Amino acid sequence: MMMSGLFRFGVWQNFFRAWRSGYSGNLEGEGFTLGGVYVIGAGRQGVLLEHREKEFGDKVSLPSVLEAAEKIKPQAS
């Protein structure tokens, strides 16, 4: 995203939402890397949930993570 991320309206919305809720991280580090969440099943189940940040501050839906985690089947030994 580099500098173009600073000009996106959604990035500023996410920043102010975090600021109002009392976020107090150290804000150190790379700063240009977007994150993501993967839920991977056992064995051949593969990826059950994939969430990639499209802009800074995107959050994954907790209910969708829990739903995907419940789908994980134990692998037979």
TrEMBL record:
Claim: Protein transport is one of the keywords in the record: no
Key words, A-Z: Antioxidant, Cytoplasm, Redox-active center
GO MF terms, alphabetically ordered: antioxidant activity
Chain segments annotated as transmembrane: none
GO cellular component, one term: cytoplasm
Compartments it resides in: Cytoplasm
Assigned protein family: Belongs to the peroxiredoxin-like PRXL2 family. PRXL2A subfamily.
Protein name: Peroxiredoxin-like 2A
Upper taxonomic lineage: Eukaryota, Metazoa, Chordata, Craniata, Vertebrata
